[in-house]
Amino acid sequence: MAKVLILGEIRQGELRNVSFEAIAAAKQIADGDEVVGLLLGEKAVSLAKQMIYYGADRVLVSEHSDLKSYTSDAYTQVIMQVIEAEKPEGVVFGHTSMGKDLSPRITAKLKSGLVSDAVSLEVNGEEVVFTRPIYSGKAFEKKVIKDGLIFATIRPNNIPSLEKDESRTGDVASVNVDIKDLRTIIKDVVRKTTSGVDLSEAKIIVSGGRGVKSAEGFKVLQELADALGGAVGSSRGACDAGYSDYSLQIGQTGKVVTPDLYIACGISGAIQHIAGMSNSKVIVAINKDPEANIFSIADYGIVGDLFEVVPLLAEEFKSVTV
Ligand code: FAD
To answer: Boundaries of each Electron transfer flavoprotein alpha/beta-subunit N-terminal domain copy (predicted)?
Structure first.
């Protein structure tokens, strides 16, 4: 049994799903011990209850003005202070941009190990066994933590969150934070993407490559994504060509995604792209080249011109989606 701290993440005024998934992972590690949530930034107080509903026993919050926008400096200082005060035996973050930035900083300060990008875990007696992808998703390894601090980041969309239970109760308390010597001050946040669906947590992704041929071509993909309630992603080929924004890039040097459905349109299937999407549950590839490598990992392949196939799919899904 171990007391576990989890970091919740707020984006655009809402809790990201990975916060609930981290609670589910923490519950397994805690094995009956306390799961403490930490929520920092604007709206932390009003969102804290959600974490209790999804399984946290207690939530610590701070809406300090220096935490309004994420900075490595401020968040690291506060999390270190909370860890020192709470002395958890386990810590779980999402394997998100924030979690990937914070976890090595904090584990280095704590001189602890880190299991990053875990996709599942099991507890065998005193040992916690994490499974994580290696070699760009081609294989999985197991990491066993036998003693010391159990610190892990979990990949979004892999560990199912618990059922929401609005009858659960728990303490929500403000933490006193001491933030100093900030090297970064965020003046304003300018969002480039307008879609409401967060790519790394999307259940359905319609992704485009160089075969989409223009930024205008991506509108066709957006229509299909809208019909399915999904998000649009892209290959680096499409980003490099200026058709799509780098914030949408999926792959080794972009985002790693694991949606239920990934529709690759005009993407050849380079190893660096596959590294970011091969663990999607169902992969559909649309490519006019029957020899394209993307077909080797696709569950369903459509050989054809995406500008013919994608609008047909969008029409069809619009007619069945209520
Ligand atoms: P292409 O390889 O040019 O493929 C375009 C495809 O579109 C072709 O298969 C073609 O048959 C098809 N097509 C063309 N017209 C149509 C049509 N009308 N209808 C249907 N199909 C059509 N790439 C990533 O994606 N993500 C990464 O994170 C990433 N990181 C990298 C890191 C490094 C260090 C390096 C060296 C490379 C990285 N790359 C990454 C680049 C990668 O190697 C490929 O160059 C890139 O993925 C190719 O993008 P693409 O499939 O869109 O383009």
So the answer is: 4-194
| Among 273, 20, 291, residue whose Cα is nearest residue 160 | 20
In percent, how much of the chain has pLDDT > 90?
A: 88
* Binding site residue list: 210, 235-236, 249-253, 266-273, 287
* Domains annotated on the chain, with CATH: 4-174 (3.40.50.620), 204-321 (3.40.50.1220)
Between the alpha carbon of residue 139 and those of residues 120, 154, 288, the distances in Å are 14, 17, 29
**Which residue has its alpha carbon closest to ligand 1 atom 28?**
251
pLDDT band at 311 (very low <50, low <70, confident <90, very high): very high
Mean pLDDT of 177-206: 85
- For a ligand 1 pocket test, name from 244, 287, 308 the mutation site with the most ligand atoms within 8 angstroms of its C-beta: 287
ipTM of the complex: 0.99
The sign of the dihedral angle between the CA atoms of 276, 281, 284, 285 is positive
- Do 84 and 77 meet the contact criterion of CB atoms below 8 Å apart? no
Q: How confident is the model at residue 87 (pLDDT cuts 50, 70, 90)?
A: very high
